[in-house]
Amino acid sequence: MKIAAIDIGSNAARLQISTVLHVDDVVSFKKVEYVRFPLRLGHDVFNFGEITPESEVRTNKLMQVYKLLMELHEVEDYMACATSAMREAVNGHKVATRIKELTSIDIHIIDGQKEAELINNVVVQALDERQFLHIDVGGGSTELNLYLNRKKVNSKSFKIGSVRLLEGKETKGAWNKMKEWVEENVLTSQELVAVGTGGNINKIFNLVAKVSDTTTLAEIERMRNYISGYSLEDRINKLRLNADRADVIIPAADIYISVMKWAGADTIVVPDLGLKDGIIQLVYERWLKKEQKKKK
């Protein structure tokens, strides 16, 4: 069977379609389709407080495309979630309602806590018993989650994100609040490893060209400085970055670097997991419960 996840973020909207695989008693998900489109809802919301009519039209068209792709793949179940930009837009719920009327796609506008929970459900699988600080940088917010012995012991969401920084719309004092939270919660007596999720850290990690899923703070800083040495045009043409990645990658890198320095983390694990993977897992669990009820 195939299931799908739609993740509508502040910078881009993603569709992932996965096949559910069963090997003995182990369930896994194989990605068979992945589409990312730069809606840039955060540009509207962080500057004007709402989703503009033009962006609503583009979002509606994209949801129609995603719906057709799911139909072609014969997807049995899916879930669409929207995060920071749509939940902060004064017209976010109205836009989601109109899109549902036109496309039948029901967009769940989730809060930062639910967003972190969905991501954490898949990230925890990549951890061991050490102390980990999970840093998830989106377009509108950054979620920090502290783990010890594979259990989350604390978490906090901050209104600092790549698009928000690019637009100069970060919340006043947010940097200091994030620094204070890190310094108050990280256990300095134990080794700490950072875990990075989000499109920007994935791209930085790929540019570093590591063969494992771990790299260092020094390498992240080196790549950040290397990219910043290019103009926006050259980042697109010479480094072959997407236009909507080329402008936000430096603000995003600054967040990862700052948090790692505050936490005293020299290494970072980049497991290439995110909200879409958490949604996929939730959709499967929801489908499984429905099937179990049918059998009773």
Automatic annotation (TrEMBL):
Gene3D superfamilies: 3.30.420.40, Exopolyphosphatase. Domain 2. GO terms for molecular function: pyrophosphatase activity. Pfam families: Ppx-GppA (PF02541). CDD domains: ASKHA_NBD_PPX_GppA. Residues 27-280 form the Ppx/GppA phosphatase N-terminal domain. PANTHER family: EXOPOLYPHOSPHATASE (PTHR30005), RETROGRADE REGULATION PROTEIN 2 (PTHR30005:SF0). This is Phosphatase. It comes from Larkinella knui.
